[in-house]
Protein 1
Amino acid sequence: MLKQSVPNFVGNRELNPGRRMRQSGITERWRNREISNFQYLLALNSVAGRSYNDITQYPVFPWILADYESETLDLNRPTTFRDLRRPVGALNPRRLEMFLERYDMLGGGDIPKFHYGSHYSNAGMVLLYLMRLEPFTTLHIDLQVCVCLVLCACWWVACVCVCVCICVRACVAESVSCLLSCSHCTCIPQ
């Protein structure tokens, strides 16, 4: 059984992600600015086994902006950007304190300690992020029973990011690539 090839597996048959990354030279190409951040994140997602063909393993991208209120973004101002040294759940100090308190309260019994009760990527969040595109619209409606597609896309992306990064205690989801590259999902002019 172990000698059989994995169906639909494309690329290097080496299953060790670290070794695959080193052999590919992709990190060096990124460091030398031969490929974009977007291309590098796509490569990392691919090595991690994430695929556009499975919403439970959909590629993840970090929320990178912190400023969703300014009319014009000042790309030279550090506060325009999210602190990428921290996971989404640790961006807001009050929310981080809640996660740390919960972690300290857990323990004993069969449940191991954990900071976050949800995952940084899940099918429900992928459907929410991509609900402006079929087949995700229909899948989202089937899952949620209702949908509100009349929201302005720019406001909607900002609202989702603020909720994920600051407000909603249970949600620590990262973004998806479509929010960075698809005009139906974002404020990109058509």
Protein 2
Amino acid sequence: MIGAIAGDIIGSVYEHHRIKTGDFLLFHPQCTFTDDTVLTVAVADAILTGRPYQESIREIGRRYPGAGYGASFIGWLFSDHPQSYNSWGNGSAMRVSPVGFAFRTEDKVLAEAKKTAVITHNHSEGIKGAQATALALFLARSGHGKQEIRKQITRRFGYNLERTVEDIRPTYSFDISCQRTVPEAIIAFLDSESYEDAVRNAISLGGDSDTLACITGGIAEKIHRLKKPSLRHKFPCSFRHPVCSGIVLQYTKMASGLMNIFLRRKTTLNLLIIGIAIWSFDTFVHIIAYKETLLDALFLKVSGHDLYLRLAILIASCLLYLVLMTNRVIEDKESQIENILNNVIPVCITNKDYEIIMANDSYWSIWGRAENKSLKCYEHRPGESCHTENCALARVLSGAKEFVAESKKEYADETHYFIVTARPFLDSKNKLAGIIESFQDITERRKLEDEKGNLISQLQASLEKVKLLSGFIPICASCKKIRDDKGYWSQIETYIRDHSEAEFSHGICPDCARKLYPDLDKTFPKKENR
């Protein structure tokens, strides 16, 4: 599933700036998650919680109204009585990857893929696109090779997968249909040598880049795998947004359950080995010191004192082993949590005395790391709301469950804007100890909004200058003067000039010149009779 999300993020920049080459910056500074990621996470959440797909998609989708949904989907998302709208768009395929991961048989995968699609995309092509994507991912996950995947998808769904990326790229264009997205995305995977190569193939087609890369990336992840050192540490902040990181971490619990069983068995085996080793060591001492036979030293002539001693040593060793194992697990968990916290959006915790007591690396990289332990938030991050009723800490202390405000910060030679969300921070006794604040960078969104506002202003100014002449205009049949709304008669050029942006330059035509200046008539060329 991470492969699908990563593909969406990588392709997000190139959806509206399409390219026809695989040679591009993999993680552009402006790349972000889109509706593909939000809805993929929503499907995963439905599988994990057992909720209906429609309920989960509508709940999570509404949290991110600006994720880039289509017009029909937005209407469905915010409708009080949502109904399927017979869509054949690729939205059904872009969100289905968790189904290919979660279920164990082809029939179940196909059935669940259809369920995820029909809530909106109940057209036969919309359903087919979702099923083909989920099945391709399931087959890849089950160990089938590329040729087997090509064969089965072609047989079941009739897609032409005999083409190559080089065949498709020259004539392919932006297309949101399943029938012109899913086959091309699968071919991008089939023509690849690695996960990165697959995503580059998909984006290089020059189509709906984020959705193509999302579908391709989900399938490619199971064949090529995502190498942690080479790709995952490069994911931009948008991938580490809570909507992604939270649900993706939940999704891994399905696999961690099996791992827990393995660890329990491994611990039991290690304790058994410790017991056998202690008993064998004591037996060896008896054989050397007391000249006993192996059988006597093991069982027959073991005194009560020796038995108690062996048991005491065994229990102490087992307890020590368990303590060491527990500490190791705790250290691993702490390391994982620290790694997660340092790679999500900027987060800091402030106590009731306005002191920042904890923050992650993302926060320090923007506002600078503290040099002393007692750091006041209003000194470290001053703003207009400090010491006012709009202070986030003051709002939470007064009973607010959540406080959202906008903030800005000058760094990296430009002004960055943030949405700051503050929530109560509770201590071990479940009492309010301060606030935890998260900072979502919305600089690019603000720039786009400003550009949009400027464009609207320019268009309005242009429209104000435009004057149109329409309807009936009273004109004299003889002198050609025009009567205006006030009843005055004006020259035709004056009327047009006053009611439009047109300007006149005066001259004299040959016919009028002959009439007004007959003496000069001989200077004008005569027309031949035809």
